[in-house]
Amino acid sequence: MSKITKGRKAAYYTGMALIALGFILFISTFISVASHINDPLSFIDGRGTPPFANSVIGIILIIIGSVVMSIGARGPAGSGLLLDPKKAREDLKPFSEAKGEMINDVISNIDAVDRIVKSSEAKEVIKIKCRNCGALNDEDAKFCKNCGREL
Ligand SMILES: [Zn+2]
Fold first, then answer.
1. Contacts of 144 (CB under 8 A, 6+ apart)
2. How far is the CA of 119 from the centre of ligand 1 (A)?
3. Residue 69: inside a domain
């Protein structure tokens, strides 16, 4: 069972943090603008200069974060950063294995149901009908459990 490496996990969560940070920066620009909207002079004298640079940095962080996140999740080759189909298969192995396990689970469930059906059928076959009274007896029974006659 192959696992996602620690480095890839770290990249995944770093990317997630970058997206969150970028989002906060992006939103903060609009909050800043909104907080100065009642004081138009503040835009002119510089006190309320909206941090537009922050929103640009925010968008860049979101883009970088999502790239880093997808590299972390799928690996450098699996995410398409490296064009190496062989390596991509290796990178995506934890996911394809998980898919395989899900399919195995379904198959084993079908198997279990099949076994129950077969075993209940088998039980029917093993029973022996008494020639005297018609009661159903176990295959290995010497005498009928109903009337006591030898089978
Ligand atoms: Zn009998």
1. 130, 132, 133, 135, 137, 150, 151
2. 25
3. yes
